[in-house]
Design a protein that fits this description.
Elements (H helix, E strand, L loop, with lengths): L1 H15 L4 E11 L8 E5 L4 E3 L7 H14 L3 E6 L16 E9 L8 H10 L4 E7 L8 E7 L5 E2 L1 H4 L3 H17 L3 E5 L6 E8 L4 E5 L5 H10 L3 E6 L15 E4 L15 E5 L4 H11 L7 E3 L3 H13 L6 H5 L1 E2 L11 H17 L16
Amino acid sequence: MKEVQDIIKAFDKAVISGKNAALATVVHVEGSSYRRPGARMLVTDDGMITGAVSGGCLEGDALRKALFAITAKQNKLVTYDTTDEDDAKLGVQLGCNGIVHILFEPIRINEKDNPIELLKKALIVRKNAVIITSFSLDNKSQTGTCFFTVENEQAVTTNSFKNFDENLQQQLLTDVKLAFDKKLSLIKTYPAAAQDQNIFIQFLSPPIALIIVGAGNDVLPVVTIAQILGWDITIIDGRNTHANNQRFPSVKNIFVSKAETILQNLFIDKWTVAILMTHNYNYDIAVLKQFYNKGMVYLGVLGPKLKMQRMYSDLRKEGINISDAEQTNIYAPIGLDIGAETAEEIALSAVTEIKAILMGKNADPLRNKNLPIHL
C-alpha cells in the first residue's frame, strides 16, 4: 500500500497545482516480470512520475504513453512483449522474458469515483477491499477502474460497471466474494454480449500497523525501515524525553503512557504487530500481560531468550499462563539470523522477520526455489 499512499499524495499535490495526471496500472502479466498486476504509477502532465510499473526499464516509454492518454483523454492499453531476446525492437532493455499489459487512465477530477478516489477509499478503512479494473486485450475500448468494495459492505460502482449486462455483473460479484474468501487477486476473461471483458480483481489488505513499545535510539532505524514499507507506526514509552515529535517527527501516533494503561491509546486488529524494546524489564512484562492474548500474529520482545523465559516464569507466578498457541506468535529474540550487531542491522533483521511471518514465508534465499517466485 506504500505505492498507493505515495500516488495519492502526489495526485493531491498535482490537483492543487492545476496539473493533469494519468494512472498506469499493470493489469496482466504473462511469464516473468519485475512488477506484478496491481503495480501502479502516476504521471503528471509535467512529466513527474510517482510509483513504478517495472524495475525502471519501462518507465521512460510508459511516461510517453501516459502523456498521450492525458492529451487524448481516453484510456489506453499498452502491451510490452519482452519474450523476444532482441528487446532493442521495443527501444527498452527489459530482459524479463514476459509480456506485460499496462492500462493508462487519464484522471478526471470531476468524476467522484475516478480511479484515484477509489484507491483513497481503500486507505480510509482498515478492512480488506477489492478493486476491479476492466480492460480488453482484443479491443481498443478500455473500460478501466470501475468498482470498489469493502468486505461485507455495499460496493461503489461507476457508470462503466453499471453498463455491463446483468449476467456479467453477477459473475463479477461472485468472483469478488471468491477473492475475499481466498484473499487473492484474480485475472479472468468473461464472455459478454458486446465484447469479451478481461477483468483484474485486485484484493487489497490495509497497511500493517506496527506498535513499537520503547523510544530509545535503537527504535529510530526500525521506524525508518517500516515507513519505507508504508506501515502505520505507533510509538509508546513512559518517558516524555524520548517519546516526542522532536525525536520522531514523521510518526503521527506517539503516546507517553504507563505500561498498565497502554491499551487506552490503541486500536488492535488482525493487521497489527508489535515489538517491545524499552530495555526496561518491568515495563516490557507489564505490556506483555496486555498484549499476549490480543491475537497479534507477531509480538516481538527485544532481548535474549533467557529474558523471555524469565518473563514466562514471572507471569506464571502471578497466575498468568501463556498457552503454547499464544507463545507461537511471540518472538524472542526478535529478528532473523543475518549476523546483525548494530542498531540498523537489528532493525533490518526484525522488520524482515515480521514481513516473512506476515507473508507466511521462511526467508530462504530465492535461488533455492525451484518454482517461479510469483505463482
